[in-house]
Amino acid sequence: MVKRLISSKKSKNDYEKYKWFITSSNKIVIGGKSAEQNEEVVNSYKTDLKFSKYVVMHTKAPGSPFSIIMSDKYNKRDLEETAIFTGCFSRAWREKKKSVIIDVFLVEQIVKNKNMKTGTFGVIGKIDRKPVKLKLYLTKQNGKLRAIPFNAKNSIPIIPGKMSKDKFAEQLSIKLDIPMEEILNALPTGGFQTC
User: Where are the domains of the chain?
Assistant: First the structure.
């Protein structure tokens, strides 16, 4: 399970199999890369009461990761960064939108009934909504290229655009001398442009 893997010193980087970044206040945020991973991420936190106050985010419309801040101690900036991350790795990027609405709730509010498809959940109770602009910054975190939701030193700002993911990754691979696979793993699905 995700929570056990992440809390284990031996397996501290197992979160890297998901979409991930580290907030500006050093909190790990993970999100599923697929419906199956969304199911895995949410279920691994729902089964343990000590994670009930963890914040979860998802776009208002279907088609995004369920993103979780891996701590019950977070600040306003962590929330903002996680919301941007969730929006940028959603269908909205592929559709070249400039902004998207993010739903914000707690692990304890998530429900699942037997008729729901894999990676689909319901939420009971109050949901906060945050509008966010779609913009990321390419930089290194833990020695790997990441597309993060805040400006870091020497980062490259990107927004949704017309250049294909493969072509964009190929150009960056040459410019930054980073393997193309690492770049592809860092980017959302869709087109790109620098800004």
Answer: 2-133, 136-194
